[in-house]
Recover the amino acids of this structure.
């Protein structure tokens, strides 16, 4: 991939190239052929100013590093386009208030809504109402219950996170069949946690390993420290730990430091900047982290703009924006950390 293409990616190098919405890697002759292409067909001019697009954005409260990064990246992306006006609702974990925010966007007759719902099921009816009003809805991260609630859905890959973490640990174990692997999950009742654990279990099984010790936290620093302390007390020997979330990982690493133990390594989850800096230092037990992109809202802005302007994704032959886009869950190590630090969030 050329340097010019990499520059346009939301997740440098490994996010779907389609999201770049341009064709800087298209040969010059092909660009000339596309100059007269009909509306909706890739023309290589997707980033040029076009029809004005008013986009409403609503997401949960930024009470978590990843969530805060979602909103920050979304606002930064909108500012890149002179033809985009982004209306940002205050982040909230109150479902009724978020429903009211979407109702306000409908009344304002925005062109599109980029919506990361606190509760996908609860926001489904009002999202359908927006679509029926002719407003393009882009669903981010937490899925609605109906395909009629959104034109396009952008997702991270929760199961893929587990697969990536497990595959990396398998590689690091180098055939050690008696390796003791531990897992510090997030909130067990959430489907995303269950998907991450399932992917991790399947990847380990592929190399003859299993999760020997497992505890669950609550995606917070305090819960991470408590869960890790309990794990370390119950497991006198460990070879590797996968922690689902880098925010709760701040507490996890505090508990590990307090224990004085160093016989294992740790793989993080989500891709925070502080974890990446620890990986880069080479002096931490943190050896890797698995990305869960905090750029999904920014991707949503790009896609909403394309949809309203009736454009296609520049690097696809398909003349319509896909209904579902799932972003990749790459593993960040000391070898590639510099590639991912620019888009990482602070825990």
């Amino acid at each position: 991939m050329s340097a010019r293409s990499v520059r346009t990616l939301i997740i440098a190098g490994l996010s779907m190239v389609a999201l770049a919405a341009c064709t800087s890697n298209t040969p010059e002759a092909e660009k000339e052929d596309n100059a007269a292409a009909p509306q909706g067909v890739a023309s290589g001019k997707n980033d040029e100013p076009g029809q004005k697009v008013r986009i409403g954005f609503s997401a949960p409260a930024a009470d978590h590093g990843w969530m805060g990064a979602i909103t920050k990246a979304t606002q930064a992306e909108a500012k890149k386009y002179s033809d985009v006006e982004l209306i940002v609702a205050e982040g909230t974990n109150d479902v009724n208030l978020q429903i009211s925010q979407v109702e306000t966007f409908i009344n304002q007759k925005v062109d599109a809504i980029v919506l990361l719902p606190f509760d996908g099921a609860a926001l489904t009816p009002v999202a359908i109402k927006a679509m029926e009003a002719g407003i393009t809805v882009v669903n981010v991260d937490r899925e609605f219950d109906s395909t009629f609630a959104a034109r396009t859905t952008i997702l991270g890959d929760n199961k893929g996170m587990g697969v990536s973490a497990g595959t990396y640990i398998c590689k690091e174990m180098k055939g050690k069949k008696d390796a003791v692997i531990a897992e510090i999950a997030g909130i067990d009742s959430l489907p995303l946690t269950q998907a991450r654990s399932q992917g991790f279990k399947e990847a380990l099984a592929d190399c003859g390993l299993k999760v020997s010790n497992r505890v669950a936290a609550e995606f917070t620093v305090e819960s991470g420290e408590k869960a890790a302390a309990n794990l370390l007390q119950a497991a006198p020997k460990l070879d590797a730990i996968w922690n689902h979330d880098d925010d709760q990982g701040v507490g996890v690493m505090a508990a590990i430091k307090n224990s004085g133990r160093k016989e294992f390594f740790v793989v993080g989850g989500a891709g925070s900047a502080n974890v990446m800096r620890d990986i880069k230092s080479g002096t931490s037990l943190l050896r890797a982290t698995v990305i869960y992109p905090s750029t999904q809202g920014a991707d949503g802005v790009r896609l909403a703009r394309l949809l309203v302007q009736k454009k296609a994704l520049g690097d696809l032959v398909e003349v319509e924006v896909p209904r579902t886009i799932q972003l990749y869950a790459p593993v960040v190590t000391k070898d590639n950390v510099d590639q991912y630090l620019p888009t990482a969030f602070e825990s």
Observations:
- The chain has two domains: 17-155+295-326, 158-291.
- Residues 270 and 291 are 5 Å apart (CA to CA).
- The chain has a mean pLDDT of 88.
